[in-house]
């Protein structure tokens, strides 16, 4: 088959074809649930699935690529093809996506000489290596080779960042040189000169917007007089940041804008069809004067929610699509009125582990389950199992230690008989728990622009537990180093002779889990942090659940060794998604790392999520 760009339409084997696509990021969904989410996209009436490719997830260290398990892009695309759908692939190299560092590997920036997103030899050489690694996955899966890929996007919203046609020309040529033959696209907001600045005549321009469809399409047509109109990011919701409300949008308003878009003959990619979750330490952040880390949930108020359940938006969009294209018949349990699956256990097939065909009704409603974390160990006691210390004259950054994300612990010996004021030279990135001889003193937060804290009298060990809360994914602060920038001093005197170690938390070190299991059973209810606690629970079914940590303040949680991500009492979200495939019939294990304190040792496995308050 052939896919091409005509004067007015996309052409599939020479016939006009409308792209009806929805975004599913494979790296935000457990791989055993990919088939289910893809199938539900087709049930909404879509014929295409779009995904970014997260470069930094695949090449965590230079020259070593991982395309296995949850990063098996080839398998994801094969599942799209097996559903009879097409695929749009957006390899970047920059993707934004509210993903840490916008998808760019942190190691690009360690020596400060690489010029990102521009015509700079070191950057382009790294991109070339990345595209070479993608070639065996993407090239044989193009539509003209019998695969699902019909479009590939070059760069991402580049017009909002810069205007470098030489860079874009070289980047386009690099994509072609690996054997990609399908049409190439660009995407930008139809505002100002972004469409022109972010594209080339050889790239088919598409728009990104979520409202005022008629005006946006008119601006797109001005920038590109011929060819099919396409909104390749139709924003149907929004992401959440810690400390803000849970973002939602009107299903009827979004559907009305989608109707205008399709009535004009446009093609669409719904962003997101299914958002998923920022598992582990993968969330990004924004900094436009105030640093704002993005939450663990990436539900996005999408047609398919974080647990894969159809929402009111699913049905509203499906009704609109049905006016312009045939839509499959829905199974009875997905019909309007039956789609509010609160009280069910996920809607991901009869077991919740394989993804199912999407045609079976969900498993019978389950009940919430309380889990007592009956064993706990102070973080300090687990450090031999979690650390690998190195020594330094000055405080190293995360990047210098080879730590892409998570936590780094810094130690030095001090003699402060009358105390003093600890200061960080330039900026805290992003949050520091300050302790002396194992006793917490206070916290420094980037969001508050904190740089100083009073220390009590101490002759002993000063410890700084630094958390990267998410690398900035958009704007000029992409690629900045993490840690204590500008050095650390007390009363103006620089502190020297540091020991430093990243904490082995994602995945959590098995030896640490073994030590934790051997801890004595605790009788009390409270937890004093930094502390790691563990508990077990039994399940008869293994569909999706949601971990609630009422009474806990801030930290990280795992179920059966799988890192669910960060929790924070400031919200908006109050539960963490637990994919059904992570769970086992019979005994399961939950681990919680609490940075501060908890009034309770009991967490709960819930049937429904709580993503927090909305603006209304």
Report the count of strand segments. 37
N-end to C-end Cα span: 49 Å
Q: What oligomerization state is this entry in?
A: single chain
> On the 0-100 scale, what is the average pLDDT?
95
β content, as a range?
A: 25-35%
DSSP helix fraction: 10-25%
**From the alpha-carbon coordinates, what is the Rg to the nearest angstrom?**
25 Å
What structural category arises from helix and sheet content?
alpha+beta
- Summarize the biggest pleated sheet: 8 strands, parallel, barrel
Bulk shape:
globular
- Taking pLDDT < 50 over at least 5 consecutive residues as the criterion, the unreliable ranges are 339-358
- Helix run count: 11
For the largest beta sheet, what order do the strands appear in spatially? 4-5-6-7-8-9-10-11
Tell me the layout of helices and strands.
Layout: E1 3-5, E2 10-12, E3 15-17, E4 20-24, H1 34-43, E5 48-52, H2 55-58, H3 73-82, E6 86-90, H4 121-138, E7 149-153, H5 165-177, E8 184-188, H6 194-197, E9 204-209, H7 213-223, E10 230-235, H8 251-263, E11 267-274, E12 284-287, E13 291-293, H9 312-321, E14 369-372, E15 375-378, H10 379-386, E16 390-392, E17 406-416, E18 420-424, E19 427-429, E20 431-436, E21 439-445, E22 452-455, E23 458-468, E24 471-472, E25 483-485, E26 488-490, E27 493-494, E28 498-502, H11 510-517, E29 527-528, E30 531-539, E31 545-548, E32 554-559, E33 562-568, E34 575-578, E35 586-594, E36 597-598, E37 602-606
Parallel strand pairs: 4-5, 4-11, 5-6, 6-7, 7-8, 8-9, 9-10, 10-11, 12-24
Antiparallel strand pairs: 1-2, 2-3, 12-13, 14-37, 15-30, 16-28, 17-23, 17-28, 18-22, 18-26, 19-25, 20-21, 20-23, 26-27, 29-36, 30-35, 31-34, 31-37, 32-33, 32-35
Helix pairs in contact: 4-5, 8-9, 10-11
């Amino acid at each position: 088959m052939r896919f091409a760009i005509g004067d007015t339409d996309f052409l599939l084997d020479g016939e006009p074809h409308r792209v009806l696509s929805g975004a599913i990021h494979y790296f935000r969904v457990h791989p055993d649930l990919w088939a289910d989410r893809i199938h539900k996209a087709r049930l909404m009436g879509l014929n295409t699935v779009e995904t970014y490719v997260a470069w930094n997830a695949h090449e965590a260290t230079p020259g070593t690529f991982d395309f296995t398990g949850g990063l098996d892009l080839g398998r994801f695309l094969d599942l799209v093809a097996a559903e009879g759908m097409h695929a749009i692939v957006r390899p970047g190299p920059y993707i934004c996506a509210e993903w840490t560092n916008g998808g760019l590997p942190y190691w690009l920036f360690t020596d400060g000489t690489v010029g990102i997103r521009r015509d700079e030899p070191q950057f382009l050489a790294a991109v070339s290596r990345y595209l070479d690694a993608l070639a065996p996955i993407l090239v044989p899966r193009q539509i003209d080779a019998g695969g699902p890929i019909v479009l590939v996007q070059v760069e991402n919203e580049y017009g909002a960042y810069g205007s470098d046609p030489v860079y874009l020309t070289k980047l386009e040529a690099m994509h072609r040189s690996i054997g990609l033959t399908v049409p190439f696209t660009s995407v930008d907001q139809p505002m100002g000169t972004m469409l022109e600045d972010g594209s080339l005549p050889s790239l088919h321009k598409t728009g990104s917007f979520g409202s005022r469809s008629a005006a946006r399409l008119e601006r797109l047509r001005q920038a590109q007089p011929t060819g099919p109109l396409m909104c390749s990011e139709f924003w149907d919701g929004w992401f959440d940041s810690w400390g803000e409300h849970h973002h939602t949008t009107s299903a009827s308003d979004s559907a009305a804008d989608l109707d205008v878009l399709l009535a004009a003959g446009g093609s669409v990619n719904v962003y997101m069809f299914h958002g998923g979750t920022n598992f582990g330490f993968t969330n990004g952040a924004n900094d436009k004067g105030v640093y704002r880390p993005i939450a663990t949930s990436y539900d996005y108020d999408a047609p398919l929610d974080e647990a894969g359940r159809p929402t009111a938006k699913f049905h509203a969009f499906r009704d609109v699509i049905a006016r312009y294209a045939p839509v499959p018949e829905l199974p009875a349990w997905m019909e309007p009125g039956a789609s509010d699956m609160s009280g069910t256990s996920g809607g991901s097939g009869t077991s919740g582990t394989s993804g199912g065909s999407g045609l079976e009704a969900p498993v019978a409603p389950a009940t919430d389950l309380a889990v007592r974390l009956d064993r706990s160990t102070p973080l300090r006691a687990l450090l031999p199992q979690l650390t690998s210390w190195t020594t330094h004259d000055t405080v190293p950054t995360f990047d210098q230690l080879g730590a892409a994300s998570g936590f780094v612990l810094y130690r030095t010996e001090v003699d402060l008989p009358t105390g003093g004021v600890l200061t960080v030279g330039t900026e805290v990135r992003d949050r520091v728990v300050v302790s002396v001889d194992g006793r917490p003193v206070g916290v420094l937060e980037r969001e508050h622009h904190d740089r100083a804290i009073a220390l009590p009298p101490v002759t002993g060990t000063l410890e700084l537990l630094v958390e990267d809360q998410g690398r900035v994914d958009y704007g000029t602060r992409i690629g900045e180093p993490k840690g204590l920038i500008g050095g650390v001093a007390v009363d103006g005197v620089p502190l020297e002779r540091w020991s430093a170690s990243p904490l082995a938390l994602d995945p959590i070190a098995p030896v640490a889990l073994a030590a934790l299991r051997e801890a004595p059973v605790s009788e009390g209810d409270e937890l004093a942090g930094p502390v790691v606690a563990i508990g077990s629970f039994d399940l008869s079914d293994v569909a999706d659940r949601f971990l609630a940590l009422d009474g806990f303040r801030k930290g990280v949680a795992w179920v059966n060794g799988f890192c669910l991500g960060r929790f924070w009492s400031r919200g908006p979200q109050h539960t963490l998604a637990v994919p059904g495939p992570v769970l086992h019939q019979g005994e399961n294990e939950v681990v919680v790392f609490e940075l501060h304190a908890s009034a309770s040792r009991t967490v709960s496995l819930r049937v429904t999520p709580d993503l927090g308050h909305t603006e209304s």
